[in-house]
Each structure stands twice: as C-alpha cells, then as structure tokens.
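histidine kinase, pasting as requested.
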Amino acid sequence: MEFQLLLHNILSVLCVFISLGLASFTYFSNPKKIANITLAVTLVWVAIFYVSHVIGVNTKDSLDSRNILLLNFSIIWIIIFNLHCVIATLGKTVEQRYVIIGVYCLGMLFTLLYLFFPDTFLLPSEPKMYFPNYYVPGSLHILMRIVFNAILPVYTILLLIKAYTEGDFVARNRLKYFLFATTIGYSVGFIPVFLIYDIPINPNWGIAFIILYGVPFVYGAVTYELLDIRILARRALGYALTVVILVLFIGGASFSNQFLQEMFPYLPAWLMPLVVACIAGVVGFVVWNKTKQSELLKYEFVTIIAHKFRTPITEVKWALESMSMNAETAENKRLLQYVSSANDKLRELTNALILMSEKETSDGKIDLSKINIKSFVDEIHRKYASRFLEKNISFEVEEIQTIREIYANKENVEFILNVLLDNARVYTPSNGSVRISLFEKDKQAVIAVHDAGIGLTPKEMPFIFDKFNRSERAKKIDTEGLGVGLFMAKQMANHIGAKLWAESKGENQGTTFFLTLPM
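Structure tokens follow.
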C-alpha cells in the first residue's frame, strides 16, 4: 500500500473517532438544548462521511466503490444541521423558521434524487492519484456543490458576521470560534473536491477539516452556555481531547505496526507497543494530575466568591436592623423588613453555595443535631407567612401525625424547605393555597409541600431536578429564575441521606414535593 494512501486511511479513521467523541461531548453537555443537539448530529454526519469515504476510495470494484461513496450525501446534512445549529445559537429560530424548514425540505429533495437516480450524483468510480478508486461526478453533482458548498455556507457566514457586529464582548468572543470554524474549516474541507474534477491537489490536506471545524465549533457552543469561566472550560475541553487523541493514537499505532515491520524489518516487534504504552502512561498521569487541579480551582472559585459575599451581606443586615429601629413610619418599617427579608434570602443562598462546595471536597461527615420537626416547620412558617400574604396566598401547616424528634443537619434541611416554599410562592397564583404536611411513613419523617400552581406535565416531570432546566410555562411566570434551586435542593437532600421527589396530576393541577428524613 502506498504511503500516501496509508496515511490517508489512518487519518480518516482517526477523524471518525474524533467526530464521534466531539458529538458525544457536545450532546451530553446539554442534551435538551437545540444548538447542542443539532451540532452533535452535524458531527455524526461528519463521521458517516469519513467512514463512507475511506471505505469507498479503497474499494477496488468501481461500481461497489460508487455505491459506498453515495453515502457522501451526508455533506448535504452536515451543512443543513450546521446552519440550524448557528440559527439556534443566535436565538433566531422563530425569526428564521421558514429558512430552517426550507433547507430541510431542500435536503430531503436532493437526498431522494440521489438515492433514486444515483448517476446524477456520482458515476462509477475511477482510479485517481494514489486512490484505487475516487469520485466521478454525475450530471447534477455540481448543483449539489453550488447549493451546499457555496450558497448555504455563505448564508451561514453572513448570519454570523451580522451577529458578531451587533453582539457584546462575550457574544463576539464566542462567535469568533464559529466564524473561524465555518470559514477556515469549510475551506479546508473543500480541498478533496478538487480531485473530483481532476484537479490534482492532494486530498489529504482536507482531512484536517474535523480539527479546524469541529473543535472550534464545539468549544464555542459548549463553553459559553452560562458563565464565561474560560480557564476551566479550556482546560476541561483540552483534557477531553487529549484523552480522545491518545486513544486514537494507540489505535493508529497498532494499525500501522505491521506496515512499519515491513518497512523496517530490523525493528523488534515489541518496540511499538512499548513506546505506545509509555506515552499512554505519561499522558494519562498528566491528565489525571491536571484534572485534579481543575477541580481544586473550581472549588476555590466557588468558595472564595461565596465567602466574599458573606461580609457585605452581613454588613447590610446590621445596617437594616439599625435603620429599622429608627424608622418613623409603619410604611418605612414595612419596606425595610422587605429588604431585610431579601437580604436573608441572599445570605441563605450564599451559605448553600458554601455548603455545596464543601460537600464536594469533604469526607462525607455531616454535623447532626436533634430537631423537633413540628417546632422547626412552625418557625419556617412564621418566617414565610408575610411573603405569602403579599400575594394573598393561604399558607398553613398541617400535622397529620405527631413526629418524633430526629437527628439531621438543620441548615441543610432549612435550605431545602426554603427552595420548595419559594418555588410554591412563585408559581401559585393569587388567592391560591400552599400547605405543609407532616407525617411518618416507613419509619421516616415526611415533610410535604403542596401548592396550587402550574403543575407538571408528564414530559416535564423527569427533568424537574435538572440543572438550569425551566419549562416554557415557568419562564413566562418567573422571567428571572435560573433553574438551579430545585437542582441544589436535590443535591443537598442526597448529601444528607434524605429523599426528595415531586408528584403532580398535570398542568395547572398543582405540585407536591415530598422530603423524607431518616428517623
């Protein structure tokens, strides 16, 4: 086998694994986000292209080669899903909905045309350069290239340029990766097309497409979703790609070992496996060590920020208490009490952040104290009563059974209940009702928070405790929510050995959250 062909085959196989690795990384970073889904599908189509390409050009029968290379209609869907990803990322899905529908219909039309009339796309393959067989364009092949290698990529680039000129600093910082991937990546990926039209340019240069397109696109899509903590994002992506490349290197080295033995027969057969094992060991140790540093950096970041918040929050609390003592009118006292309540809520959230960060690095020990559940819940009821009164919501505590005292971490349990009650207050309409029920079940204390809010549909229920998850109905009611409260409450419940779950009869039927605590 000629060296250029061997190199081409090895690099193509590596690109398949890189494409699938990036697709998995993108999808699982946020599997409910349209931009992530479409980018992951784009990368899967890229992998399909590489597979059909490397098999097709190595197949010696010209007709079989053409039939395999017909799967290169994947180019059509790479462009379409990439455009959809860009539109979704820019938040223009509604504005560009007719464009999205149009390109999908166009893609289906071209795909069906080429499947039913394959000669219009590709003719039986012919040997070219160092390939046993290579593409021979059909009568409508050039039309596909004009639409999907020229018109749609240019349209994508124009959308990105417009968004870049109108965006803020963070948006521009993100879009520059998309612009680089679309312009440079597509340009390099077009190189193998020259040989299709008998222009003798080495197609091996085009294999770099996945590196120049996939990596920048994934970086831009994944690392700017919520916070611009670029040091952590770059390190995490860098380590993930290092592991992927290491695995691919091992596979490529094993694949090429026989070839090296033929070229250099005096080399011992065990040399290449030994070299690969040493490299893998060193890289694995470095990645493991660096990952520990990233986790420490994340912990320090959260802890420092949270502790920095504590001091000004405490100072505000002292100032509010002093002002409240000197307030001259009932209205001023009411307003100061409202500000004080908001400050307490911020303090509780800050303490929760510290508790969550300490939980990740602690040895699992929890400080427990004896808690009288009824007195504890009554205290929380008094604290929250005024907040529910402001919305004219009925708020009561119902002790169905007398519960014995339990041992638990009071701060942790209070944080969970605060989240549940805040959630109930926000999503329960005026003149509605919220009720806390206390009872025992299976030798466990159960605290149930019932609300008369928007409820949960069967589709929403599995994701209720997911990080950053918010339904469209929830967003309309509370535009400022982030979708982290229930996630943190669930994590805290797991940490203290409690169980937290939700039940609902459906949309606008209210929701009940159950918290069980071991007795």
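Note for the archive: The radius of gyration is 30 Å.
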